[in-house]
Amino acid sequence: MKETLLLTKHMRENPEDSHLIDSYEKNGGYETARKTLINGSPENVLEEIKVSNIRGRGGAGFPTGVKWGFLAENEDRYLVINADESEPGTFKDRILLERDPHQLIEGIIITCFAANIENAFIYIRGEYAKPARRVQDAVDQAYQKGYLGKNIFNSEMNLDLVVHLGAGAYICGEETALLNSLEGRRGEPRLKPPYFPAVKGLYMKPTLVNNVETISSVPWIMENTGKEYNKLGVEGSTGTRIFSLSGHVNNPGNYEIEMGSSFGEFVESLGNGIRNNKKVKAYIPGGASAPWFRGDQLDIKMTIDDVANNNSMLGSGAVVMMDEDTNLVNAAKSIVSFFAHESCGQCTPCREGTTWLEMILDRVASGRGRASDIDLLLDVCDNISPGLSWPPKMTTICPLGPSAVSPITSLMNDFREEVESLIPTKVLL
Ligand SMILES: Cc1cc2nc3c(=O)[nH]c(=O)nc-3n(C[C@H](O)[C@H](O)[C@H](O)COP(=O)(O)O)c2cc1C
Ligand code: SF4
């Protein structure tokens, strides 16, 4: 199995200076945007994106062309790039921001041309200091060259691009919380409907919110056509995707591959297998919010639909391997603690429930569990996500609450004995 480099080609071939505009232009950078603005039409760009069948890389996998098509007519429309990347295990947007920021800016220019947008924002997570510096420098360079600002590439198009650093909250990755934060409000998800960003987004105006990787793919699609992009990967999961591989593997890292091979193949060939030749006990296929798979499910294909058909999600593309020696209750506890810490607190089931789950798991993991704890865990989960089904039902405004339920249902469905074995049979009160 080999990588297919579309988005990471330039940075791999020019590791020293791929973030600089000279290096980017030497390798053909900004030519696609220039050609598109001078000779192309917005309709043609939208058509190419639709033909490519690219689906959003932020987590939900929504078809990008369809989303762009929803954008309501209005004088003021915005594009917001979601660079909040905070899902545990996910570190793929980081390299795109840090090592190829001009590719993203070129994607933004083409997207704004297609959607008739004159104001765009890149919202970067607060902890990404170096990527943010690199992106800001790249934006400054692009302004100096006349690729941003008024009459870019001497066309009639104007575009201003603002880089905004968040304060370091995972919830601001949820698109409506991100928009609130960008407006200077508390980063709390909005009630939906009616506030779908494409209809009512930033300042209640039509807004496209797209992930860094999604928009970084636009220059390649426009240069090579949507049809060529559509030939990569498999039906429903076209193109390449950057997977962040971590956990007990020999070679963790970011790998850009066509979707469609199995997780086992991926881990064996690109991850060089599991450390110390251990077996996989469980793995997370798509970030901390995703339900886990067992070690005997490594033949599942890495596509959005295959993973969904097996009751989980490819999500943000973060694959985390846990070997046979992993204490899964501790692993679940650390994920649940993350969500408890990051809950914005608006919804009682999430605010209270995630903290309860954390406390109960802590009790069980440290050998102080009670016989009633398993039922209690499931009951609290059911209050957040009724029925414990997948995709999750929610009693909450956003999916963060149900995300904390995923590791627990994974434990209970497939590793219940391990949980039970930690609970003393005779508990002293
Ligand atoms: C709790 C939560 C956190 C999220 N975090 C991110 C994130 O860090 N980056 C991201 O692109 N999308 C994130 N999303 C998904 C966004 O809401 C949105 O769907 C995405 O930015 C749309 O871009 P796309 O269509 O290009 O994938 C998150 C969603 C939820 C519910
Ligand atoms: S589910 Fe949690 S994070 Fe989402 S809005 Fe409710 S309290 Fe906030």
Q: What is the succession of H and E elements?
A: HHHHHEHHEHEHEHHHEEEEHEEHEHHHHH
The 3D shape can be described as globular
For the sheet with most strands, the description reads: 5 strands, mixed
Arithmetic mean of pLDDT: 96
Give helix % range. Answer: 40-55%
CATH arch. level architecture of the largest domain:
3-Layer(aba) Sandwich
Q: Radius of gyration in whole Å, from Cα?
A: 22 Å
How many domains? The number is 3
According to DSSP, the number of beta strands is 11
Indicate the proportion of strand residues: 5-15%
CATH fold topology of the largest domain:
Rossmann fold
* Ligand identities: flavin mononucleotide, iron/sulfur cluster
Number of helices: 19
Strand order of the largest sheet: 8-7-11-9-10
The CATH superfamily title of the largest domain: NADH-ubiquinone oxidoreductase 51kDa subunit
Overall CATH class of the largest domain:
Alpha Beta
Cα separation of the termini: 56 Å
Spans of at least 5 consecutive residues with low confidence: none
